[in-house]
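re: ur question from the group chat, yeah i did fold both. here u go
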Amino acid sequence: MIISASRRTDIPAFYSDWFFNRLRDGYLLVRNPMNIHQVSRIGLTPDVVDCFVFWTKNPAVMIERHSDDLQKMQTPFYFQFTVNPYNKIIEPFVPEKKIIFDTFISLANLIGKERMIWRYDPIIITDSIDFNYHVKYFEVIAKKLAPYTDKCIISFLDFYKKTQRNMQAIPFSDPSLEQKLELSRKLYTTASKLGLKLVTCAERLDLSEIGILHGKCIDPNLIAHLCGGKVLAKKDKNQREECGCVESIDIGTYNTCKHGCLYCYANFNREIVEKQASLHNPLSPLLFGELTKNDKITVREMKSIIEKQPEFL
């Protein structure tokens, strides 16, 4: 099985101690977001987990505390690392860009560039962040990161209700199809010059004429390469129709990411995040809080989905 860690929160930034404690114990517990008293017991041992996919904006703490643990991991893994051109108004608690660049480079040097995927998403258009802004700063970031990654994933802002509410003080707009195509062409030109493969994330927009294909963040091709075998997994039915990811188990919890990004679909508001984060115990099998008498634990059935290639003498 593939473990997503996590679309719901930034485990490398805020909960890496908990993750490696759970990895040593060989399991964790995760609540069902739709029924909090329904708890799944997820195995983390190499016989059932084929790959970990980490999602992060700042894994500095994980690198500082757990670089040895990362290098010793028996299960393959890779990182989805978001680096955007936004300021503290939109991404209030993401460190300044120089720190993020240094962290990206440090992680790439530690684990290798093939396990580093740069995410430039979501693309937000406002009065002050126009197309020329994105063209300029995409190139600035790309030049910094291109030696340390082979791929960049882009997507345009999705107008979730949470996103619209959290960004109501910012005059953002939904660009037209023609505008999206023109910006995508310019980003593709920059990426190509720097040797970066550019793909989209969960986009209905077909950019194949430009050279930008639909991507898969939980990527069976990369996982097959890292694992040395074919990935026997279907498209993840729990994701949007436009999402190309194969099925995985997410071990995160909504309303626990402390970056405070206004566009985030995984947080309801800052007060709930602070309350839930305060209940985090790195020694607990749950990401936050403790079990109650009303909780029902179900052991998740798991097995490897990798078909190993035969070895020839």
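okk and heres the other one u asked abt
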Amino acid sequence: MLSTKNIFDGINDIPSEWIFEHYLNISEKLMGQDVKLFSVFKHERTPSMYVYYNKTINQYRFKDFSSGHQGDAKLLVMLLYNLSYGNMVNKVTADYAEYLKLNMIGGKRQMRHHDKYKVVDYEMRHWTNIDQQYWTKFYIGSKLLERYNVVPLKFFTMQKTESDGSVSSILFEYNSIYGYFKADGKLYKIYSPKNLDKKFIKVASYIQGLDQLTYQTDYLVIASSLKDIMCFRTLGYKSIEVIAPDSENTMIKESEMEKLKSKYKKVITLFDNDEAGLNSMNKYKERYGLNYVLLEMSKDLSDSVKDYGIDKVKEQLHPLLIKALKYE
């Protein structure tokens, strides 16, 4: 009897989860969960590539923060092997046909519901000498921290619902946890500088520094982080305001960008000087026509201030600002 289990019509019949599992050597079956792994495009010490399930289109996709590549399974194979679309189709269909010969599979894989961990509770605490020692390394004092609504936290709790309905909770309680709050008191991010695996936990989408804009200056700099915003403020530029997106890899929406560009004579970017930062600045230049400043000192502005001091950073940064902003 001829089995219909091993028959497929073409590339669109091949499950995206199989393509990711096969070409990225993912050992676990993709059943709706997200997977974090090392980039296959760039050498990196910390995994920054995600394979995630998009519920809207019922399909797996990928995003690689190291290289900036993102898209569907077909694009992944094209990038991995430097193939045209037609050659990618030939390769994937041939590989899948070979796989089917060796593996009797039938029916569409049922995706399970997977909740991500979310922050459900936290407790504020008083400032300590440890906090002071950390922030003053970046020349950031209590007035700036208060202005940008940075508050030390005693702990925070994250929770998610498993596919079987059970609830899993994790309590994080250690020194040097900080909550970033909007002007209305809502928490939007948690910063844990001593947690090397995950320093930032996004709670809500927010353009950092937006509440602090006066729209009374001529220029706007888009930096890479709230810490960079506060460090820029220490440099004393009275005619420049600063904001930062959720991350360098998060593009500010066009509607918001047009509004910002209408409020200032010039808007530029100042991100990290690594490859990811440069890629992001180039994207802003291509999409919105923004000039950028590449400060080739330490990795980012805040580390440069910490490592070299305010005067040295301003000495290097000032001519770059003049060029990018035509700043006087």
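fwiw on the second one: Residues 1-6 have pLDDT under 50 and may be disordered. The CA atoms of residues 154 and 237 lie 34 Å apart. idk if thats what u expected
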